[in-house]
Design a protein that fits this description.
Strand order of the largest sheet: 3-4-5
Low-confidence stretches: 478-482, 620-626, 639-661, 772-779
Largest sheet: 3 strands, antiparallel
Distance between the termini: 106 Å
Structural class: mainly alpha
Number of helices: 31
Shape: elongated
Helix content: 40-55%
Strand content: under 5%
């Protein structure tokens, strides 16, 4: 007797056989018993679509004689229409089916708007899980067929040559010349460069500006990464172009090329015009300036060159490049924070011991075969809890009948193996998507860029720094001065993304990531075992390989994260998400929270506050942040010009005088110091006073709260100086004693006119001050 269910299936099969083009609408699934065909119509998907049980469609019930012919008839149509192909896996065929249906649904106008790259459609932007490689060759073939249709339509080029084919067409001498050039850079970099006599003598046989090249090559030897080496090469090439435009002879000596205005002219006469004409990228300009600055600094150390210094310049990029420097809006920040913390909390839950549920029953008979009608996920969970000892099993590790049975049941379900384990509260593999939320959170709460974060090691977090007693994060910045230290908990601002103290957040991330990756470290290469962020690859060609996160490989992580959490910008569009935007967001939040520019400089690791100001200048702040920045700068400016009554030291007497800035504080008259300065052998009449080590005992000194960090640093360095050498036995000892006595009057809360809050903040910030005048005393 034909039931209602049978009638539904019969009508569906008839609709396909009568209109074979509809065969491409039939979903594809894995075939349990394989012959020449590895795939079949998906029983699980048809079950949902038709409202008929999977077991019925599979012929696993008493009505098998009725349903089996119907399903065979359906599969025959799929084979005839090319939906099913011999020796092709189900996932490849299903992706191919989706791609064909997508392509057929497009109008000509739609096809003209498709995203392309390298004269090919970017299929991964339109077909979820699009891939190539082993077992997916049919997708590559389909992609080539569709691209050829685009060529026939005139949308793609018919004369395009692939990059790999272009290489074969290039001059055969290119690669040897490239290798020869690299060898030459290495040779020049390994030459000694202590004095002018070490410079290569220019001649008609040497390359253009060879001495300048030798200088850049020497700096290449001081960095390890190829990108940093390339920066000096690119800087050299641009500076050569600058020299040629100024008609400088290519064989000119270095001492005749460089002068104190070289960097300034290079920026104004070459870099800025190149930016205006779009011949240079706004993002590459600071790097080029930095490379030439490094060359000039190195040139100062060459004995006999006669080059003693230069006017430094800062390079502020003109405008933003896309969203690279754009902070996330408050609404976007809230959504991102919620997404990150959701992933982190889910991962933490999976680190807790698994608790058995008692679900299901043993689906295996005495021969280890799955019983009829027992292929359910609850029964798979029974096997996991009772036969597998709650240990995940994978296709490349399954050995026992129970392990293979669990995988077989999951194969016939609608859920992937990894997703099933996660739904059970089990972390199947620590891959890059598991670690990414922790990396993103660390970037969010510290403002650090991707490269320094990826290079963090297990012991880079210090709960107490030896010098400050505060938590600290050590990191490496290749393009700066190398190793840096990020001191945490420096500010009291309540930022919306910081639910606990900054150091507590960082410590929690370190501890959790260590727990997640502990089992990977024995299998990791020696050079990666101490790296914090390592993961096990789940890629098709490198499955199981332990790797470290690299910033250039994060683009797919960003897209997966945005897609998973459906993140949108304020305009309702898909969010442009990257780790680089956290740095500008971090700064924007600090400014909105009232953190001072000086503290922002310390948190960003900038050695020069001008660098911080230029960085702030190129950020796309909202109106409130811009207003706060303006108010902060105006306040700083007013305090420097005219100290306010509050917090002014007793040395501040004549408030209407113009205050001259000195390394230590303010001076009411640099050109008219007291008699004890004028009587010094170091004083030159008519010249401004430069004896800064005596400022504290001078009547002209003007001190305000902004000078306190330097004063605390001065006291600290005096104490270190007294412990490490015999300076107190020299004439400078008297000066130190006098200064320490005055410093005690200024910095002792019981004696000082400054408030305890101002003194506390000044001492906190003093850890990052360098006292050049104390260094001069010790020299």
């Amino acid at each position: 007797m034909k039931t209602k269910q049978y009638k539904i299936v019969e009508d569906y099969v008839r609709s396909i056989t009568e209109n074979p083009s509809k065969a491409w609408d039939v979903p594809i699934g894995n075939k349990v018993i394989k012959d020449d065909y590895y795939a079949t119509a998906s029983y699980s998907q048809l079950s949902k679509q038709l409202g008929v049980s999977t077991q019925v469609l599979q012929g696993l019930t008493a009505a098998a004689d009725l349903y089996n012919p119907l399903m065979k008839k359906l599969n025959d149509v799929l084979k005839n229409e090319g939906v099913l192909l011999k020796h092709q896996i189900a996932s490849a065929l299903e992706l191919r089916r989706n791609a064909v249906n997508w392509w057929r649904s497009l109008s000509l106008d739609d096809k003209k708007k498709l995203m392309t790259f390298g004269n090919s459609i970017r299929f991964n932007k339109y077909i979820q899980n699009w891939r190539g490689g082993q077992n997916y060759e049919i997708l590559t073939e389909l992609g080539e067929q569709i691209n050829q249709e685009m060529v026939n339509l005139g949308i793609l080029s018919s004369v395009y040559v692939k990059v790999k084919d272009r290489d074969a067409l290039r001059d055969k001498s290119f690669l040897p010349n490239q290798q020869e050039s690299k060898k030459r850079w290495e040779e020049l970099g390994q030459l000694p460069l202590e004095s002018v006599n070490d410079l290569v003598i220019p001649s008609d046989d040497t390359e253009a500006f060879v001495q300048l090249k030798q200088l850049a090559a020497a700096l290449q030897q001081t960095v390890s990464s190829q990108s940093a080496k390339d920066n000096f090469r690119d800087g050299f090439n641009h500076f050569c172009n600058f020299l040629k435009k100024n008609r400088i002879n290519e064989n000119e000596l270095l001492q005749n090329i460089l002068d104190e205005f070289s960097l300034k002219r290079f920026k104004e006469d070459y870099v800025l015009p190149a930016l205006d004409s779009s011949e240079m990228s706004p993002r590459s300009a600071p790097t080029i300036i930095s490379a030439i600055r490094g060359c000039l600094r190195r040139a100062k150390s060459i004995k006999g060159l006669g080059f003693h210094g230069f006017y430094d310049v800062e390079m502020t990029t003109r405008g933003r490049t896309g969203n690279y420097y754009k902070p996330y809006s408050p609404k976007e920040r809230e959504a991102i924070s919620a997404a990150i913390m959701s992933d982190i909390n889910m991962t933490k839950q999976m680190l807790t011991p698994y608790r058995k549920t008692g679900l299901g029953q043993n689906p295996l008979d005495n021969n280890g075969h799955i019983k009829l009608g027992m292929r359910t996920l609850d029964n798979a969970r029974y096997l996991f809890e009772n036969e597998l000892n709650c240990q995940p099993v994978f296709h490349h590790t399954a050995q026992s009948e129970s392990e293979k049975a669990l995988l077989s049941i999951v194969k016939d379900s609608d859920i992937g193996l990894h997703d099933l384990y996660k739904s059970w509260g089990i972390l199947p593999v620590v891959d890059i998507d598991v670690l990414a939320p922790f990396l993103l959170r660390l970037a969010q709460i510290t403002g650090m860029n991707a490269d320094p974060l990826a290079d963090l090691t297990l012991d880079d977090f210090l709960l107490e720094h030896p010098a400050t007693g505060k938590p600290c994060l050590r990191y490496w910045k290749e393009r700066s001065t190398g190793e840096k230290e990020l001191h945490l908990d420096l500010f009291q601002a309540k930022l919306q993304w910081l639910t606990r103290k900054q150091s507590k957040e960082v410590q929690d991330i370190f501890e959790t990531v260590k727990m997640l990756t502990a089992s990977l470290r024995d299998d990791a290469p020696e050079e990666l075992r101490n790296v914090l962020f390592i993961y096990k690859s789940s890629g098709q060609n490198s499955y199981g390989v332990v790797k470290t996160i690299r910033s250039e490989k994060l683009s797919h992580v960003y897209s997966n994260f945005v897609s998973k959490h459906q993140l949108q910008d304020d305009n309702g569009e898909t969010m442009s998400f990257s780790i680089s935007r956290f740095r500008s967001t971090f700064v924007s939040e600090l400014i909105e929270a009232g953190v001072s520019i000086r503290e922002i400089q310390l948190l960003l690791g900038h050695s020069n506050i001008e660098t911080t100001m230029n960085y702030l200048d190129r950020l796309d702040f909202n109106r409130i942040a811009r207003q706060k920045l303006k108010e902060s700068l105006e306040n700083i400016h007013k305090k420097v010009i005219t100290p306010t009554q509050k917090g002014a030291n007793k040395h501040s007497k004549e408030r209407e005088l113009i205050i001259f800035s000195t390394p230590l504080g303010g001076c009411s008259n640099l050109f008219s110091p007291p008699d004890f300065i004028k009587n010094s052998s170091l004083y030159v009449a008519g010249q401004p006073c430069s004896q800064y080590n005596k400022c504290l005992t001078c009547d002209n000194v003007m001190l305000i709260a902004e000078h306190l960090p330097m004063l605390f640093a001065m006291k600290r360095d005096y104490m270190i100086l007294m412990q490490r050498n015999r300076i107190m036995e020299t004439p400078y000892g008297i000066v130190i004693e006098e200064n320490l006595a005055v410093l005690d009057e200024i910095l002792n809360p019981k004696k000082s006119d400054f408030s305890e809050e101002e003194l506390d903040k000044g001492e906190r910030l003093s850890q990052f001050e360098q006292t050049a005048y104390v260094d001069w005393m010790a020299a």
